[in-house]
Amino acid sequence: MKNECNIIRDILPLYAEDMVSEDTRTFVESHLAVCESCSEKLNEIKKTAEFIADTDVAPLKKLKRKLRMKKVQTILFTAALVCSVILSVVSVLTAPQYIPYSDGLFHITERTDGTVILTFDESVTGYTFTEGDAETSGGIEICYIEAWNTAWDLHFIKRGEQSIVFSADKPIAVYYSQNNGEDDVFIYGTNPNPNGGMRTLPRLVLGQYLILAIFAAVICSVLLFVFRRNENVKVWLERILLAPISYILAHICTKGLLIKTFAMPRDFLIIILVGIFVYCVLLLGMNLLRSKKDVYKTTL
Ligand SMILES: [Zn+2]
Fold first, then answer.
1. Angle between helices 36-56 and 2-16 (to 10 degrees)
2. For labelling, which of 11, 144, 156, 278 has a CA lying 20 to 30 Å from the CA of 226?
3. From the CA of 115, how far away is ligand 1's center (Å)?
4. Ligand 1 centre distance from Cα of residue 38 (Å)
5. Residue 92 · residue 151 · CB < 8 Å
6. 1 Cα to the center of ligand 1, angstroms
7. What separation in Å is there between the alpha carbon of 3 and the centre of ligand 1?
8. Which residues of the chain have pLDDT under 50?
9. How far is the CA of 35 from the centre of ligand 1 (A)?
10. How many A from CA of 159 to the centre of ligand 1?
């Protein structure tokens, strides 16, 4: 038996790696079935092989995967950063600069078919005309016009003359909203309110959203402090905390510290869009910092 054990042990490393012929395998297995010490020897060989695989190849693969992840994250990080910067710049360039009322700003032509044409001078590149279905005063339909240009239009685009056509076959009052804190100017029709000044007020809801975001950020920070020892909760809280922070940063990038807006849907949409990219930047940036530490640890 002892002699057979020696032969078996010579073969065991090959057997463990499955590199023996069918006959040898049967021979080894029938011996292992009756010989406890050779079975133990085989287990030892297998463990050593696993250990070598673990310590040798696996970390390298892991490191490689981490480096590849890092590369992808760096690319995405850069892309998100570029997008948020471009979007912020475009937002500032295309922000409407409202034009205060002046005598030569537009001229009005009445046509015989009851339509009225209001034509702006060249300084105006954009306008809104809000018809007053919702708002009437003593049977008079009240309409508002606001006009603006943008840095973008002034430097890059010639839009030509802008004009508005509206119907005056019913009592109508058209006001020009200056959007600069001055009264709206009555410019056409029947003035329902000849003495009193009207003023279009800016919407301040962006300020409320900003306060809400600051509030959410503070709450998340407090929770983060409370759960600082719980890794799982911490990771999620950090991701949530980045959302209000992104919103605040996006507001600052696109509106500065202004909270007044006369173009609420536009401003809010842009803040959300920029905010999404800023969120990606922050999240990826955080992961990159973390993976940098990890790689460092692994290589140590
Ligand atoms: Zn044996």
1. 30
2. 278
3. 109
4. 4
5. yes
6. 7
7. 8
8. 134
9. 5
10. 95
Residue 56's pLDDT is what?
62
User: Could you read off the pLDDT of 222-260 as tens digits, one per residue?
Assistant: 999 999 899 889 989 999 999 999 999 999 999 888 888
Q: How far apart (Å, rounded) are the C-alpha atoms in residues 64 and 69?
A: 9
Q: How far apart, in whole angstroms, are the C-alpha atoms of residue 237 and residue 228? A: 10
Residues with CB under 5 A from ligand 1 (ion): 5, 35, 38
| pLDDT confidence of residue 290 | 81
- In the chain, where the domains are located: 2-52, 59-95+204-259+263-299, 97-189
Residue 260 Cα to ligand 1 midpoint, Å, equals: 88
pTM, to two decimals: 0.69
